[in-house]
Amino acid sequence: MIFPIVLYGDPVLNKRAVDFDKSENDTIQKLVLDMFETMYQARGVGLAAPQIGISKRIFVVDGAALDKKECKDFKKVFINPTILEETGKEWEFEEGCLSIPGIREYIGRQESLTLHYFDENWSEFTETFVGMQARIIQHEYDHLEGLLFTDRISGFKKRLLQGKLNKLKKGITDADYKVKMTLKK
User: Fold this and answer.
1) Does residue 64 form part of some domain?
2) Is residue 38 included in any domain, yes or no?
3) CA 93 and chain centroid, separation
4) How far apart are CA 177 and CA 12, in angstroms?
5) What whole-number percentage of the chain has pLDDT above 70?
6) Does pLDDT of 159 surpass 90?
7) How confident is the model at residue 25 (pLDDT cuts 50, 70, 90)?
8) Three-state secondary structure along 149-176?
9) Of 115, 61, 124, the residue nearest 86 (C-alpha)
10) Among all residues, which ones are annotated catalytic?
11) Range of the domain at 93
12) Using DSSP, how many helices (H) and how many strands (E) does the chain show?
């Protein structure tokens, strides 16, 4: 099932997601398949559950679309992840987000991270990721913490984008994938 992508302004994007419990395994298996299907349909390289309106600590990634050697086989599921350490020199790269279509900004992130997580089979891992893999994880992990890449830009840049962000809050977008906005009363 393809979920609509929740747009900027929806409160689910700004709250910390809660852990999954192993007893929810049947739910997770279907959710993982649906999240990959949704991500591919929107041509993304990562998708976190809050982006489809589910405030749970899970995200999926597939970096193959980036056409970078280090991401060719980078397809994973991350359940209840915890960043243990971020190291290395901070480097900037232009990021976008399926929940903020049409807006891209250069974001600085550290080049390496060590992550503890479970996969869709509840196998437990502690792994170190570097470069673009680390960046993708950091971006998606931010979603689980209630952060968006726009929270990482300067106040000045955010003010420059405010008109576009306000349009997204109203559901005005040219995204070519299914989106969902929060109706304000």
Assistant:
1) yes
2) yes
3) 16
4) 19
5) 98
6) yes
7) confident
8) HHHHCCHHHHHHHHHHHHHHHCCCCCCC
9) 115
10) 140
11) 5-180
12) 3, 7
Where in the chain does DSSP place strands (E)?
A: 5-6, 46-48, 58-62, 75-95, 105-118, 124-130, 179-180
d(CA 150, CA 123): 33
CB distance 65 to 43 below 8 Å: yes
Number of domains in the chain: 1
CATH of the domain at 82: 3.90.45.10
Model confidence, pTM: 0.94
- Which one of 26-30, 71-75, 146-150 scores highest in mean pLDDT? 146-150
Chain centroid to CA 173: 19
pLDDT tens per residue across span 63-104: 988 878 888 899 999 999 999 999 999 999 999 999 999 999
Domain assignment present for residue 127? The answer is yes
Structure tokens at 183: 């109706």
CB 103 within 8 A of CB 96: yes
Tokens describing residue 94: 């232009």
Tell me how far the alpha carbon of residue 84 is from its chain's centroid.
18
Residue 185 lies in a domain: no
